[in-house]
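If you are new to this repository, start here. Below is one unmodified record pulled from the training split, so you can see the exact layout before writing a loader.
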Amino acid sequence: QVLLVESGGGLVQAGGSLKLSCAASGRTISSYLMGWFRQAPGKEREFVARIGWSAGSTSYADSVQGRFTSSRDGAKNTVYLQMNSLKPEDTAVYYCAADPPPYQEYEYWGQGTQVTVSS
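And here is the target side for that same chain:
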């Protein structure tokens, strides 16, 4: 079992930055595909970013490409989402998720952290 705990959310003005953390415990996630998702009020959860076991393997939603960067620290068993140039439409609850080998689905989810971007 893997426990994921997100942190780093908060209130920021448009154009500002936040860095989210997702700390894993229970098992090492070094071989896991890690994803970031978000859900805004009244909307479905949507994909934000993904980082593979190789830190160079990342992908992003078009809406955040060039503004958000995902990274991971194996020693800390933690993944990060650096969010720059934030926009009000980035306001949502952000979740991290873990997809273990053989990478069939995201099996573990965090509880989420609120990000609010004011205009």
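Two things worth knowing about this chain: The chain has no helices and eleven strands. The first strand starts at residue 3 and ends at 7.
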